[in-house]
Automatic annotation (TrEMBL):
Record SUPFAM superfamilies: Nitrite and sulphite reductase 4Fe-4S domain-like, Nitrite/Sulfite reductase N-terminal domain-like
UniProt family annotation: Belongs to the nitrite and sulfite reductase 4Fe-4S domain family.
A Pfam family per the record: NIR_SIR_ferr
Stretches assigned to the Nitrite/sulphite reductase 4Fe-4S domain: 138-294, 406-547
Keyword presence, Metal-binding: yes
Protein's UniProt name: Ferredoxin--nitrite reductase
Nitrite/Sulfite reductase ferredoxin-like domain mapped to chain residues: 56-91, 95-129, 329-392
Length: 584
């Protein structure tokens, strides 16, 4: 029997939902019957509209979408102006103030504190600049990720941007495929670093080469069934398929999307992700059915991959290649792109608008977003670099961050997410400053990847980090407090591996001390040139567990209490959200 949500979606989903959102927006949120809110809010997600957590029932988050993080000239400015004019909440965040936007790990943007009545006007302003929220959430193909410098990369192996654009318009734009069994992630890597992270996507294309008719050609190998979350992460499995051109790459990915759309589990949502589908069916059966029913050309066996060259979040040394896109990098045409580090991916509206102005003044106006919650300023002529780097805003969102800021990612947390168990963004921003000021890192280590997810859904990709944090709750001194599980040794690259969890339910105020003890042990005991991931592998989990010593420090934050129990982590206990609407 299909799940309750499948029944709701079968009645109405996809493009048709927009008309109902606009209708409810005109009537006001109170027009949505209380006993139908779960149904309607499930459907709203397809258009990127999410009701915020309990207690914030009258406010909504909007997730935007694009192909590969590309924001064309004028688009970041439009988003910043919408954040300035519509994304103001009833209580300021103590770290970030009011009116800001969040950069995501899928190369896109989220806006918070929107009121339903404003959604049509927000769409109008965004869409006038070519920005959409369609298919940004819910059980559908989510934002398609790739190398954020596709088409600009000096060392690009396989051209990928035209293929990414085609996935955006023809595949994600197909309303007949909008109702997937669960959310579905697609990635395309055309570079040597592996920065689209195919191994944690439902279907991923990675660069490869193969001899065909006596000639060595480049193209893609295909992997399926990767993903994180629920403490059941999976590495995408090799489907033993090589595609040498854009047309066949498109058809193979489309074929797997259609196969999963038709055969994926719609009865048990906990088993509906493609990683479990691949577990159950196996790659050989999937490949055979793909050949028999979904593509009309003979599938070639996999080519020679280049995974041994992957460096993006791969735990390899700096000498092997770049780990991210932060810093100044030459493009294929001789211009440069400049990657900035935005702490925990949160930009104020005013900073976003100023960044758009800077992109226009010094480059082409195009801004691209990475999987590490950072923006890139594109197409900067060499003669403008010095003036660009002297801009005051680049002192705040710097292209030369300290190792802790450079490597850190954080999800939304209890500030807005009903699944999260802990606050994440503000705590992490303050923890980064504390680590910077109190913990020394070896001179040859430019970054330590610390990823913080407020729950085991792992939107912050903690499983893939040097040091991964999962939000938890624990008892301390007779009170329930926010806490974290601590894991070590994750990474993607040639041999993807997930963290080993070495400490569980550590009270949040003891976590900075635990991280400090880990980093200090790493600095003291590592071999010359050894990365954190290599050190963990060499030492072994048992030893590293002993090095990770939770302890209270002078680190302070105003939200150490159990924020899950409040309507907003930073509000006074007795405060209430404006326009409260019960959903019981």
């Amino acid at each position: 029997m299909a799940s309750k949500k499948e029944a709701w979606k079968s009645e109405l989903y996809g493009d048709a939902v927009r008309e109902k959102i606009e209708e409810f927006a005109e009537q006001g949120v109170d027009a949505i019957p209380e006993d139908e809110r779960d149904k309607w809010f499930t459907r709203f997600k397809f258009w990127g509209v999410f009701q915020q957590r309990t207690g914030q029932d009258s406010y909504f988050m909007m997730r935007l979408t694009n192909a590969n993080g590309v924001l064309e000239p004028g688009q970041l400015r439009a988003i910043g102006e919408v954040a300035r004019d519509y994304a103001s909440g009833p209580v300021e965040n103590p770290e970030f103030g009011d009116a800001w936007l969040d950069l995501t790990t899928r190369q896109s943007i989220q806006l918070h504190w929107l009121e339903l009545e404003d959604i049509p006007e927000v769409w109008e302003k965004l869409e006038a600049a070519g920005v959409s929220s369609r298919s940004a959430g819910g059980d559908t193909m989510r934002n398609i990720t790739g190398c954020p410098v596709a088409g600009r990369d000096k060392h690009e192996l396989v051209e990928s941007q035209p293929l990414l654009d085609r996935f955006q318009t023809e595949l994600r734009g197909n309303d007949a495929l909008s109702n997937m069994p669960r959310k579905f992630n697609i990635s395309v890597t055309g570079c040597r670093e592996g920065c689209a992270q195919d191994s944690i996507n439902d279907v991923g294309l990675e660069p490869a080469k193969k001899e065909i008719d006596g000639e060595t050609v480049t193209g893609f190998n295909v992997r399926v069934g990767g993903g994180l979350g629920s403490r059941k992460p999976r590495v995408a499995r090799d489907l033993d398929i090589f595609v040498a051109d854009e047309e066949r790459a498109y058809e193979v990915v489309r074929g797997f999307v259609e196969l999963y759309h038709e055969h994926g589990n719609r009865d048990v949502r906990a088993r509906a992700r493609s990683r479990f589908f691949v577990d159950e069916w196996g790659t050989e059966k999937i490949r055979d059915l793909l050949q028999e029913e979904y593509v009309d050309f003979e599938l070639r066996s996999a080519g020679e991959n280049i995974r041994d060259e992957y460096t993006y979040n791969a735990g390899r040394s700096e000498s092997a290649g770049k780990h991210d896109h932060v810093g100044v990098h030459e493009q294929a045409n001789g211009d440069y792109y400049v990657g900035l580090s935005v702490a925990v991916g949160r930009l104020t509206a005013s900073d976003a608008i100023e960044l758009a102005d800077i992109a226009d003044e010094y480059g082409s106006g195009e801004v691209r977003l990475t999987r590490r919650q950072n923006p890139l300023l594109m197409d900067v002529p060499e003669e403008k670099l010095d003036d660009l780097l002297a801009e005051p805003l680049l002192g705040k969102h710097t292209p030369v961050p300290n190792p802790f800021q450079r490597g850190t990612v954080a999800c939304t947390g209890t500030e807005f997410c009903s699944l999260a168990l802990t606050e994440t963004k503000a705590r992490t921003a303050r923890m980064l400053r504390w680590l910077r000021d109190n913990v020394d890192v070896p001179d040859d280590v430019s970054q330590l990847k610390i990823h913080y997810s407020g729950c085991t859904a792992d939107c912050g990709q903690a499983n893939t980090a040097d040091i991964g944090l999962f939000g938890m709750r624990a008892q301390k001194d007779g009170e329930m407090v926010e806490a974290m599980d601590i894991g070590v040794g994750g990474g993607i690259g040639e041999e993807p591996s997930f963290v080993e969890w070495v400490r569980q339910r550590i009270p949040a105020d003891e976590v900075p001390g635990a991280i400090a003890s880990l980093v200090e042990a790493f600095a003291e005991r590592r071999e010359p040139g050894q990365t954190f991931r290599e050190w963990v592998e060499a030492e072994g989990t048992e030893a590293v567990t002993e090095y990770c010593v939770p302890e209270e420090t002078d680190f302070e934050a105003p939200y150490m209490h159990d924020a899950k129990q409040s309507w907003y982590p930073f509000a006074e206990e007795e405060a209430e959200a404006e326009q409260p609407v019960t959903s019981d």
